Structure formats: structure tokens, C-alpha cells
Amino acid sequence: MFSFATTLLVGAIVANGLILHPGYDQVATDQYNLLKFMIGAGPFVEHSGFGIPLDTPPHCEIEQAQLFMRHGERFPTKSSGKQYKKFYDRLKKANITDYKGPLAFIEDLEYFVPDSDNYDLETTRGLYSGLLNAFKFGTYLRERYDSLVDTSSVLPIFAASEDRVVDTARSFGRGFFGPDYATSCSIQVVNETDTSKGANALTTKDNCPTYNSSFYDYSFGDEIFQREADRLNELSPGFNITADDIITMGTYCAYETNVKGHSSFCDALSREAFIALQYNNDVTKFYQFGPGYNMSAVAGGVYANATAKLLQEDGKLWFSFSHDNDLLNYITALGLITDTELGTEDVDFHRSFKTSELVPQGARLIIEKLNCSDTSFVRTILNDKVYPVPGCSSGPGYSCPLEDYLDIITPEVDYASACELPDDAPKEISFYWDWKPTFENN
Ligand SMILES: *[C@@H]1O[C@H](CO)[C@@H](O)[C@H](O)[C@H]1NC(C)=O
Ligand SMILES: *[C@@H]1O[C@H](CO)[C@@H](O)[C@H](O)[C@H]1NC(C)=O
Ligand SMILES: *[C@@H]1O[C@H](CO)[C@@H](O)[C@H](O)[C@H]1NC(C)=O
Ligand SMILES: *[C@@H]1O[C@H](CO)[C@@H](O)[C@H](O)[C@H]1NC(C)=O
Ligand SMILES: *[C@@H]1O[C@H](CO)[C@@H](O)[C@H](O)[C@H]1NC(C)=O
Ligand SMILES: *[C@@H]1O[C@H](CO)[C@@H](O)[C@H](O)[C@H]1NC(C)=O
Ligand SMILES: *[C@@H]1O[C@H](CO)[C@@H](O)[C@H](O)[C@H]1NC(C)=O
Could you name the active-site residues (predicted)? Predict the structure, then answer.
């Protein structure tokens, strides 16, 4: 007879000495997961990781955790929704006598956003419900960090003020605190439209007058998108698909998947097109919010600086919610990306900067402070996988010694001066320290 214990021990299912199934997977399927090609617009997907167990390393205990999270799966924004509806209407109006090929499904296609009130908000039902995923993640972190919770005091959860971010923070809180939600946590809404808040925000790039996300204008894939359009027009004639339509279909696929759990546009597009769509987005974002633009680490440096300060204090749990591009700024400031440039001639298959790996909907970065035999180390966990700090992984479980970590993440450039902030604007984050318990936002 075989048992679960035997399975674990020998890494294979063994019955009476006969090996029934290999204990090690010989197929590498992760590379084909379409969620890795939805440019960060599609449902959450874990980072591919490096094989490092999530378990706390032996002789270590977690002393502090800082979470910085993007809101969960959502509907398209109003402006991109308008574009999808226009595209949908055009396809529906085409005079097609014989629906065939990859786009045959358009004959029966219904528009995926039921009500214009849904735009900009989280998805609330179905397979990829953004609010459910945030709730589940809250329950998971409660399990992991239960020993850090002081049930006699109120814990803040910081959220940038857009509805979908606050809704995500609340759902996370309900998962983390369970029945104690109403009294144990306090949702602290951090205004994201009041630029006079300067550095005291979770959307610092927006409060930085010199941050110009159009400073570079890089893209990729025109020829490949045209080739894909030609392919679809040949197999499904009559729609006059253009190269630009391919880009629209790529994100239509992602958002329709968030809402309905599936999209026929995802099936219609070739893998060749998806690889180019992903790379096109990576190149653009790399030079807008990643290491390709020198203001990224300045805007993200504000959070990195606060992270460093919190790591040297006694607070145990810090939860912050914001947007993908702010998370990219932060990841950049923390030195987690090793790419220094991305070319636009060919796909750089060997890059680490892939937006679907870094900032899918519901993306989360956790910084854990470990105490291992009285020495402090830091581990970063990106999208549920240990993601070692490049150039600093000598500690237990490939963690980084705290002192070295502080050197790595301390910003080189001052936000206030690089952004040319007015004198009266806050020059660093203070909300982590001067928040007051209130329950009106819960
Ligand atoms: C497609 O292009 C052809 C030729 O330019 C034109 O006659 C037809 O109206 C177009 N159809 C659509 C759906 O745009
Ligand atoms: C639709 O296409 C058919 C066949 O090509 C043609 O006979 C018909 O006139 C077209 N109808 C419109 C409204 O363009
Ligand atoms: C943010 O600040 C702006 C400008 O002061 C104000 O109009 C807006 O109501 C504030 N938003 C929230 C959510 O408090
Ligand atoms: C941002 O940079 C682009 C490219 O250099 C420039 O055309 C544009 O005027 C800049 N925008 C602002 C607000 O400075
Ligand atoms: C960013 O690079 C530009 C040149 O492209 C330079 O003028 C600017 O001072 C740099 N800013 C920072 C914060 O390094
Ligand atoms: C690390 O943990 C040990 C054992 O629990 C404790 O005595 C020590 O004070 C901790 N060290 C730090 C730096 O927190
Ligand atoms: C980092 O924070 C410290 C205070 O903790 C502040 O003095 C320093 O100016 C900040 N550095 C940057 C680059 O923001």
C-alpha cells in the first residue's frame, strides 16, 4: 500500500515497489499559462519563482511584515471601456454572410460589461472576483502572521483613495480580521488626487510635477500585429482587423476574463501575438514606471525610505494598497529589477521585467523581517513566491542581511528636490506614524 507519507519521502507514488507515477514533473507547462501574457490587465497569477520554499527558514522567526498591494481583478476603466464597446459594435455591424475561423464566435458575442456603473470597479463575482481574491489573501496572511497580531490594539490598513483600491483593502481586512473586522482594523484612506500631499501619499508619482510618464515613448510589435491581423482576416474574412485591433483584442481578452472567467478573444489570438503583446507592454512600462526612467526610483524611493524606517522600528504589520504603476515604482526603488534596458527590435526573452509576473491584478509585495539566532534578515515575497534581492541573498532561506538591505534600498535621490516640490509640500511619508484610529472608512 502507498501512503501520503511515502509519497513525500520518495517523491513518487510507490505501490509494492512499483513506481506508478513519476515524482518529478518532466513537463514545463508554466510558460504556456496565458495569464503570463495578459500584460498585468488579467487575473492574478503567482510569480514563477525560483524554487525557494515560503517556509520561514530554520532558527528564524518573522518579526515584521510590510505588504504593498495592487487592487484586485477589475472591470476596464471608463475610457478603455468606451474603446472596447466601439470595437465590439464595429465587429457586430460587419456584414458577414459566413461566420467562420477564429472570429466566428462574434456572431453570438455579447458585450461583457453589464452596466456602465461597473467601469473602474473591482469584479465582485465569478471565477476571478477581485474582492474574493483579496478576501482570500487576507485569510492566508492571517494564517501566516497570526503571531504578529496584537488583538488588543487597532491595526491600520492604508489605501489610496480610488474606490477599487479602498474596496480591495476592505475585502482584505475582512479576510484578515474575520469577525473582528469592524473593531480591530481601521481603513486609512490616503487621498490620491490632492497633489499638495507631495510625498505623503501612496501615489507619489502623481504628486511629482517633474514625473513625466510620456518622457519616453517606446513600443514594440507593429509587424507582428500586422501579421496577426492578416492571419485573422484570411481565416475570418469581413471584419477588416487592423494591427491596432490586435492590441485592443489583447486587453479585451484580459478584462473579459476578469469579468466572465473566459474570453473567446483569448482563444482567437495566436501565441505569437500574445508574446509580442506582453513585450510591447513591458517595453512601454519599463520606460514609464520601471528602471528605464530615472524618476521611477525617485517616486518609489519615498516608499522605500519609509520601508527602511519601519524595518528599524517595532511595529509588526503594515498593509498598504495602491495601483500597479506605483508598485512598479516601488519594485524599481527596492532594486528588484536587474534589467537596465529593453530593446525594441526584438523581444528580449531573457528579461526579468515582465509586467504579468510583477503587477497582475491583485499583485502583492511583502517585505519580511526575520530574526535568525539574534541576527536580522529581510526576505521579499513577490506574488506569493520568495523573490531574493538581486545581489543580496546570503542569509537563511536566501534572505538579505538587514544592514545590507538598508544600504540597498536607501534612496540616492531626494524626492522633494527631484520633483521640485513647493516648499510647503510634505517631503516624506508621515501617515504610517501619524494615523488615528477611526472606523468611518471601514
Ligand atoms: C472592409 O473593407 C472593405 C474594403 O475596403 C470595405 O468595403 C468594407 O466595408 C469594410 N468592412 C468593414 C466591416 O469595415
Ligand atoms: C452584405 O454582403 C452581401 C454579400 O457580400 C451583399 O450581397 C449585401 O449587399 C451586403 N449587405 C450590406 C448591407 O452591405
Ligand atoms: C482629496 O482631495 C481633494 C482636494 O483636496 C478633494 O477634493 C477630494 O474630495 C479628496 N478625496 C477624498 C477621497 O478625500
Ligand atoms: C514629457 O516628455 C515629452 C517627451 O520629451 C514631451 O514632449 C512632453 O512635453 C513632456 N510633458 C511635460 C508635461 O513636460
Ligand atoms: C534624469 O535624466 C535626465 C536626463 O535624461 C537628467 O536631466 C535628470 O537630471 C535625471 N534625473 C534624475 C532624478 O536623476
Ligand atoms: C531574536 O529572537 C530572540 C529569541 O526569541 C530574542 O531573544 C532576541 O531578542 C531577538 N532579537 C532581535 C534583534 O529582535
Ligand atoms: C528618507 O527619510 C529620512 C527620514 O527618515 C529623511 O531624512 C531623508 O531625507 C529621506 N530620504 C529621501 C531620499 O527621501
Answer: 71 (nucleophile), 324 (proton donor)
Same domain, 83 and 172: no
Tell me the whole-structure pTM to 2 decimals.
Answer: 0.94
Active-site annotation holds for 71: yes
Task: Evaluate: CB of 294 within 6 angstroms of ligand 5.
Answer: yes
User: Which residue has cell 519594485?
Assistant: 331
Tens digits of residue pLDDT in 169-219: 999 999 999 999 999 999 999 999 999 999 999 999 999 999 999 999 999
Helical ranges in 207-323 per DSSP H: 222-235, 243-260, 264-268, 271-286, 296-311
Q: Is 376 in the pocket of ligand 6 (CB under 6 A)?
A: yes
Any atom of ligand 5 within 6 Å of the Cβ of 416: no
Residue 11 has pLDDT above 60, yes or no: no
**Which of 282, 303, 321 delimits the end of a domain?**
282
pLDDT of amino acid 12: 65
Is there a contact between 305 and 410 (Cβ–Cβ < 8 Å)?
Answer: yes
Contact present, 404 and 397 (Cβ < 8 Å): no
Indicate the residue among 258, 282, 306 that finishes a domain.
Answer: 282
How many domains, in total, are found in the chain?
2
CB-based pocket (< 6 A), ligand 4: 212, 214-215
Q: Are residues 161 and 274 in the same domain?
A: no
Q: Which atom of ligand 3 is nearest to the CA of 161?
A: 13
The domain of 364 spans: 40-73+129-209+287-434
Judge residue 241's burial from the number of C-beta atoms within 10 Å of its C-beta, 0-12 exposed, 13-18 middle, 19 or more buried: buried
CB 208 within 8 A of CB 298: yes
Q: Is residue 305 assigned to a domain?
A: yes
**150 shares its domain with 297:** yes
Pair (197, 173) in one structural domain:
yes
* Atom 7 of ligand 5, residue of closest alpha carbon: 294
pLDDT digits (tens, 9 = 90+) for 237-265: 999 999 999 999 999 999 999 999 999 99
Q: Is 167 a catalytic residue?
A: no
Which amino acid type is present at position 176?
F
Residue 231 lies in a domain: yes
**Nearest ligand, CA 429:** 7
Choose, from 71, 282, 323, 326, the residue flagged as catalytic: 71
pLDDT at position 15: 73
Question: 302 and 423: one domain?
Answer: yes
**Residue 87 CB-density burial (10 A; 0-12 exposed, 13-18 middle, 19+ buried):** middle
Distance CA 427, CA 421 (A): 8
* pLDDT recorded at residue 111: 98
